[in-house]
Amino acid sequence: MRTLVTRHLWQAAVVLFLGVAVASAQNPPAGAQGAAGAQAGRGGRGGGGLAMLTVTSTSFADGAEIPAKYAGAQGVSPQLSWTGAPAGTASYVLIMHDVDVAIPAGNLHNDITHWVVWNIPGSTTSIPEGGPIPSGAAQVSMRGPQYMGPAPPPGHPFHHYIFQVYALNATLDVAAGASRADVEKAMEGKIVARGAYVGRAKPAQ
């Protein structure tokens, strides 16, 4: 029962987190919008409302523990699929991050970036286990242009990893090797739908 309650609390937290993240991306502070931010509110439904993507995986259940094969430095990326994107979706962005980590000084996101994939073609609705990422897409993590598996420090409890998928009404003018911040800045005003999937991981024994 405690596990079920914890899972429901995390699912509620993910919904709240996504709402805040999307609002931030779609409506950046006044004076800091730029060309992309000037479109804020145009991409969604009803003046800023967003469609909801359904994200699934054959690698592990939503809210469940992430198997060891996907964890650590040698871990392979899990399979992910999504449905529900609006007509006219031009590309997708995938962001995986650890929301329970101790935050390093100077971190801009209050979490750790494990994987960012952008310019996934709008005709693509899945990424296979272990990749490769679709042609034309680019990826990055804290370790470079690759997936970084979960690896909570010894002595820590379970960490929660959120896989966020965003549908965009355009592709991003962001070169390979860019940072997550660069990608998120370029997403401003272009998000038309979003969804999330959650996995848990504990320190290696």
Q: CATH topology, what is it called?
A: Phosphatidylethanolamine-binding Protein
List how many beta strands DSSP finds. Answer: 9
User: What is the top-level CATH class?
Assistant: Alpha Beta
The CATH architecture term is Alpha-Beta Complex
Strand order of the largest sheet: 1-9-8-4-5-7
| Category by helix and strand content | alpha+beta
Give the overall shape: globular
| Average pLDDT number | 80
Helix-residue proportion: 10-25%
> Uncertain segments of ≥5 residues (pLDDT<50)?
1-13, 15-48
Query: Secondary-structure element sequence?
Result: HHEEEEEEEEHE
The largest sheet is:
6 strands, mixed
Binned strand content: 25-35%
Task: Give your account of this protein's structure.
By secondary structure, the protein is α+β, with helices and mostly antiparallel strands. The chain has one domain: Phosphatidylethanolamine-binding Protein (Alpha-Beta Complex), CATH 3.90.280.10. Helix content is 18%, strand content 26%. The protein has three helices and nine strands. The strands form two sheets. The chain has a six-stranded mixed beta sheet, covered by helices on one side. The longest helix is centred in the N-terminal third of the chain and has 25 residues. The chain is globular, with a radius of gyration of 16 Å. The N terminus is likely disordered.
In short:
The protein contains three helices and nine strands, in the order H-H-E-E-E-E-E-E-E-E-H-E. By secondary structure, the protein is α+β, with helices and mostly antiparallel strands.
